[in-house]
Design a protein that fits this description.
The strands form three sheets. Strands 1, 2, 7, 8, 9, 10, 16 and 17 form an eight-stranded mixed sheet that branches. A seven-stranded mixed sheet has the order 5-4-12-13-14-11-15. The chain has a two-stranded antiparallel sheet with strand order 3-6. The chain is of the alpha/beta class. The protein has helices at about 15-25, 50-60, 60-65, 90-100, 105-120, 165-170, 245-250, 255-260, 305-320, 325-355, 360-370, 380-385, 385-390, and strands at about 1-10, 30, 45, 75-80, 85-90, 105, 125, 130-135, 140-145, 150-160, 180-190, 200-210, 210-220, 225-230, 270-275, 285, 290. A hairpin with a 5-residue loop joins β4 and β5 (about 85-90). The protein has a single domain (about 1-175, about 275-390), classed as FAD/NAD(P)-binding domain, CATH 3.50.50.60. About 35% of the residues lie in helices and about 25% in strands. The protein is globular and about 60 Å long. It contains 13 helices and 17 strands. α9 (about 305-320) runs antiparallel to α10.
C-alpha cells in the first residue's frame, strides 16, 4: 500500500484539470488512470465562457485556445424544412457581457494541454494502468484498491472517474446511470471536404423529431466535427442491438440535403449511448469527494458536461487550497456547486425535449418564439455563462 496525501482517481479532462488546480494551490497530487495512456475518445467539444473562466483560473486558458476555433454564431436550423429558426451572436457584445469568447476544439487537444501542464509540475505524479475497484473508508483516511492488487491510502480522494464511477458508489450508490434511449454518432472530416453552405464560422444545430445534428470546425480550423443524435425505437433495457447505423440512416434520411450529406461521414463502427443521473445533494463522505460526471452526469444538450467538470476543478482546487480541514473544504465546495450543477442536469433534459418535438402546437409555439428572438438577446444564457462573476467561496 502506497501512502499519498491526495489521490485523484481518473485522468480525463476533469481529473487532470483538478490535479493542476490543486498543484497551483500548493497541494501534492497523485493521479491514477485506468487506461494504459491518457486520451479522449470522441471529437469536438464546445466551451462557453463559464468554461473559459475555469480554464483561466486553473492557468491553462492561453495554451488551450491556441488549438481553438472561435465561431461567430450558433445557428439553429430546422432539419426537415431547412428553415433558419434563430441564431445567437457570439461577437463583441457576447464577449463584453461574459468576459470570454465562445470556442470549439478537439477534445484530445484540450486533454493534451492539461496533461502537458500536469507533467510540468513536480508536485503532480501520474500513473496509468491503475483501475480503481474498491474504496475503503477509514477514520482519518481512505483507501483505494486497484485491479492489479496495488492500493493507495490518502488523506483526500477525489473521484473524477466519470459516468460509471467506482468512487461514486462509496459516496452515494444510486445504481446504474439512466439511459435516455438516445444514441450519438460522431465523425470528423478534413475542412476542405466541407460544403461552403455548412457555415465554417458557425456552430450549426439542425433539429427534428427525436433527432439533431451538430456541426462545427475544430483543431484550429483544420477539421470539421459532426455529431448526429437520435432516439432509437429499438431500445430495450440491457440490450445492445439498438441505435444502429441503419436507424441513423432512417432518421436523418428525412432531412434536407445538407443533413443527408452528413450521413456518409460518420464513424459507423462505434456509437455513444446517452446517459445521465438524477441530481444528488451530497458529493462527499469521509475523506472522499466527487467531481465531474462522477458527481453530476448530464445529457449533452447544453454542451456543459466538460464545462461543469472544469468549474468543479477550479472550485475544488480553491476549497482544498483554502482550508486544511477537508470536511470544511468539501462543505464549501458543495455549497458552491451542487445547486448549480443540479440545475444544469435538469435543464439539459428539458432542452432535449424542446429540441426534439414532433410537428404539432408545441413545435409551432417553439418555432414562433425562436423566430421572434433577437440574435443578441442573452438573457436566457446569463445564469449559465456568467458563473465566474458570481462565484465566491463561502
Amino acid at each position: 500500500m502506497q501512502r499519498v496525501p491526495l489521490l485523484v482517481v481518473g485522468g480525463g479532462i476533469g481529473g487532470l484539470a483538478v490535479a493542476n488546480a490543486l498543484a497551483n494551490r500548493g497541494r501534492k497530487v497523485h493521479l491514477i488512470e485506468k487506461e494504459s495512456e491518457f486520451g479522449e475518445i470522441g471529437a469536438g467539444i464546445q466551451l462557453a465562457p463559464n468554461a473559459s473562466w475555469a480554464l483561466d483560473r486553473i492557468g491553462v486558458l492561453r495554451d488551450v485556445t491556441a488549438h481553438a476555433v472561435f465561431p461567430q454564431r450558433i445557428v439553429w436550423m430546422d432539419a426537415i424544412s431547412g428553415e433558419q429558426l434563430t441564431w445567437l451572436d457570439l461577437g463583441e457584445r457576447f464577449v463584453e457581457r461574459y468576459g470570454y469568447r465562445y470556442f470549439v476544439m478537439h477534445r484530445s487537444d484540450l486533454l493534451t494541454v492539461l496533461l502537458e501542464h500536469a507533467k510540468s509540475k513536480p508536485s503532480i505524479t501520474l500513473e496509468t494502468n491503475k483501475e480503481a475497484v474498491e474504496i475503503e473508508h477509514r477514520e482519518t483516511t481512505a483507501v483505494v484498491r486497484c485491479a492489479d492488487g496495488t492500493a493507495y491510502e490518502a488523506d483526500v480522494v477525489v473521484g473524477a472517474d466519470g459516468l460509471w464511477s467506482v468512487v461514486r458508489k462509496a459516496v452515494h450508490d444510486d445504481g446504474e446511470p439512466i439511459c435516455s434511449e438516445y444514441v450519438a454518432y460522431r465523425g470528423t472530416i478534413p475542412i476542405g471536404d466541407v460544403s461552403a453552405h455548412a457555415g465554417l464560422d458557425n456552430v450549426m444545430l439542425w433539429t427534428g423529431p427525436e433527432m439533431h445534428l451538430v456541426q462545427y470546425p475544430v483543431r484550429r480550423g483544420e477539421l470539421y466535427n459532426q455529431v448526429a443524435v437520435f432516439r432509437s425505437k429499438r431500445y430495450r433495457p440491457g440490450s445492445h442491438d439498438w441505435g444502429t447505423p441503419e436507424e441513423l440512416d432512417e432518421k436523418f434520411g428525412r432531412g434536407v440535403e445538407l443533413v443527408r450529406a452528413a450521413l456518409s461521414r460518420f464513424w459507423r463502427n462505434r456509437r455513444w449511448p446517452m446517459f445521465d443521473r438524477l441530481p444528488i445533494s451530497q458529493w462527499s463522505r469521509g475523506r472522499v469527494v466527487l467531481m465531474g460526471d462522477a458527481a453530476h452526469p448530464m445529457l449533452q444538450y447544453l454542451a456543459q458536461g466538460a464545462a461543469q467538470a472544469l468549474e468543479d476543478a477550479a472550485v475544488l482546487g480553491d476549497a482544498l487550497g483554502s482550508y486544511d480541514d477537508c470536511e470544511t473544504a468539501f462543505a464549501v465546495y458543495q455549497r458552491a456547486r451542487v445547486e448549480r450543477t443540479s440545475r444544469v442536469q435538469t435543464e439539459a433534459r428539458r432542452w432535449g425535449d424542446w429540441w426534439h418535438q414532433f410537428p404539432g402546437p408545441g413545435l409551432e409555439r417553439r418555432n414562433a418564439y425562436l423566430r421572434s428572438r433577437a440574435p443578441d438577446d442573452y438573457t436566457e444564457a446569463d445564469w449559465l455563462y456568467g458563473y465566474g462573476e458570481r462565484y465566491a467561496l463561502r
